[in-house]
Structure prediction request, 298 residues.
Amino acid sequence: MDHIDRTLLTHLQQDAAQSYAALGQAVGLSAGAAHERVRKLRERGAIRRTTVEVDPAAVGGAVLAYVMVDSVSWMGDSAEAFAALPEVLEAHVIAGSASVLVKVRTATTEQLQDVLRRIYAIDGVSGTQATVVLETFFERPVSPELGAG
Amino acid sequence: MDHIDRTLLTHLQQDAAQSYAALGQAVGLSAGAAHERVRKLRERGAIRRTTVEVDPAAVGGAVLAYVMVDSVSWMGDSAEAFAALPEVLEAHVIAGSASVLVKVRTATTEQLQDVLRRIYAIDGVSGTQATVVLETFFERPVSPELGAG
DNA sequence: TCTGAAAAGCGCTCACA
DNA sequence: TGTGAGCGCTTTTCAGA
Prediction:
């Protein structure tokens, strides 16, 4: 994982549909060499998959909220319970008073309320504190340049 | 945006490198028709871009934290100040006592501390409350099937 | 809006350095 | 780990329905 690899990752994050010739030119390599490096980045798992970025508002996810989930028992193996709710995009075990932090997207605040009800129904959950987002400044992928430290 | 479009989006999220022939077969259309639908999804902005999913841990982002940022003044036009910090992956204006919620990834907790210092230096910021993630259950893209309501 | 086919471009693999 | 070239497949386009 050198500077060239990080630059390749940055360019692929911006546009994964570009040709290997263009990608190679951006880092001063031939198309074949760029292809080989990207193949290895996939092999190592640094690149997980090629995907498309979907506008949340276009598919019924205009309302964004973060929910602190309090519990009375250990939530360490409740991943599936949260994953079963399609509106829950992220679920993390956190340090602090609450035990799980989840990111939720719904079309309306009524649907958000329904998701909170379904979270509350999960075994061990004793309460929820929802924080509704009024405006999103930006959402962006992790910068490979952080690795340059 | 009908059922076919939502299915196309779901398949593209899973693998944007597959052929239009395979994509069309998944929804019962010819490659040409699938191509035309995807082209329109891009045109409308439902698909923002084709990208790669990068493993955060592979590029110096192993530590994840959410930070509530309190302020003494209106933070509505401080988007650039947060965007200038590469470790800040998301920044949202929120309802509630704090005024901005940010998602941060760093390699170490020492670097997280440094990011908090730089956030504190932003004009109007009066305090930060960081919540460190101990374990991530999952992080996934918005489900196009939400739109089926 | 779809199908089917033709043309142009690219991915992938190879021999070689 | 790199280059450059070839074959084969895919993207992209278009006429027709």
Summary: The beta strands of chain A are 47-54, 63-71, 88-94, 100-106, 125-139.
